[in-house]
Amino acid sequence: MAQLNHETTTGDVLSAYLQGQATEFLRSLRLHRESTTDAQGAEESLEAARALRRAARRIGGTLHTFRPLLDQEWAAGLRPELAWLSGTLAREHAYAARLVRLLDALHRLSGAPAVPAPVTAGAVAGGAVAGGGRNAGRNGWAAPRGADDQGSAPRGLTVGAAKAAALLERQLTLARTRAHSAALQAFGSSRFHAVADNVAVLASEVPLSRAADDLKLLAAGAEEELANAVAALPLGQAGHPYNAEALTHGLAADADAAPEAQDVPWLKTRDLLRLHRYAREVLTGCPGDDPRLADASRALDRHRDAADAASAAASAARTPRIAPATAYALGVLHADQRHEVEAARFAFHQAWLREPEAVSTP
Amino acid sequence: MAQLNHETTTGDVLSAYLQGQATEFLRSLRLHRESTTDAQGAEESLEAARALRRAARRIGGTLHTFRPLLDQEWAAGLRPELAWLSGTLAREHAYAARLVRLLDALHRLSGAPAVPAPVTAGAVAGGAVAGGGRNAGRNGWAAPRGADDQGSAPRGLTVGAAKAAALLERQLTLARTRAHSAALQAFGSSRFHAVADNVAVLASEVPLSRAADDLKLLAAGAEEELANAVAALPLGQAGHPYNAEALTHGLAADADAAPEAQDVPWLKTRDLLRLHRYAREVLTGCPGDDPRLADASRALDRHRDAADAASAAASAARTPRIAPATAYALGVLHADQRHEVEAARFAFHQAWLREPEAVSTP
Known about the structure:
homodimer
């Protein structure tokens, strides 16, 4: 369906990028299939799932940013399917990583020896599609596993931290196991096979449109959207250390909604920064990132992870019949993670204000 | 007992300062006596008690720093008595201020409208020797006043914040009332009258020694002690925003000891900064402060206040039979105040690294 004339270069650049990512998608998928049939392949399976999500995000982002250059109907149909796939695959990993983040924080807050690294790594690896739930109970806490009791408030708050850890582990392991089942189901679904077929088409021939839009112009559009989103952020406040903004409303009546409302523009900026980075990759033809953008991106990842972890702690505190010491520890943990959110905003501010590097196009 | 010869200037400068502070002490004491017999004099009583403490601290600090220039036995006897007096007077104010700080924080964390200013001011004023406990229950919270119950965990955490506020108010109002009684008892004691008599002696004639030590040399000694204390602080870490150090060990087994251990060098620095500032006042003969030192001093005051407030929240969380939602709110509050501690260390770092102003001596 692609009939190129004077736009040969534009079409070639876009096609090369999309074909590269589609090939990477198919390679990861093959690796993932091989590793999940192998009982020892947890690590490989994790890596393959990560690479699969990475390629799916890049293809989806490119279909969006450069949509005028592509077959509209085809691109509009594939993009949400790619988002569904990477979202489904991401969930299990997110629950595993959230648990590790919260347990690490509880150890830090308790002055307890840190979780041994191999066990932590194992817990995350175990969470990756290959073996959800297998590492439950191996986080180094000698915590009671039964229902939290209503006894008198313990004097030693470490009891509270241990009980909070056990409660979070139960809840997040359950969520991870469910996400694992959902991911396995997704891989076996006809919906997934349709996505894989579409990506296979992409690997051989990119369905370009006849439009003569400029690649750089479209990339500049993505950059402008990002700039607008950043302009709407309270950056001045974020650049003032210890502004205590992220915890404001942390005890508000609607505990889920209140702190998350202020997170929305930051999460939106994270999405737009990704689109901008992928558009830069299309232009430059190489995956290397501007260090400034990489730092900004890492800060927004940290923002998202800490905000989700803070929500998980608040949500665990609403479990009926928990002991006061458990609730206290979860309160400290929630506040700790909201301060991580604030620290991430500060880090984003620092990265963003650095001098941007010029985009070098081939 | 003072026989001055070639050290006339040194003796004159020291005497002038001590006589000025002694006169201020006696004036404040008179004002305080007048205001406490007047039922409407709460505000005046507060101000008088503050001025009394201020003068007592300065006399005590000066007796310490310039002790070789003074009658040793007399100075060594008076100094702990002044510390006892200002400590006794400070306690009631500290409990009132701590309650206001914690209630303000709970309001901020709940996204509730702030405590109306006049009530807040009244609550503090009411705490000042004149009328401890009178303003209890006027903090704007429609909180349950009875014993915290063991019911099922409330969904809305604002319930937890309100219960935490009520609990803190009960505990800190009780402590304030006790401190008020102790202060009243102190004012009527023979121990207090002996202090007042000694300060009256000081106002008319300062008991100097025959030593020929140099005023500037002794002041430099105080400055050096401060510099050594600051050098022992983890300033590099404090200057790195969001280092999360102040909350480390916040959930440690011995909840009182753990975070307070890291506060000790900061509190010691606060004491030594005061001695340095008072020594500068003696040298310059005027109460005006170097803005840098004033900022550093304010940061260390904030450090002390936030650390004490965090301890009060942790201590309230160990009350038997509190509801989980109350404990959760106290956990968030504890972490919030420990981050205030961290913010205060950052502020001290910023103030301290500014270029110091030269001391101008007359």
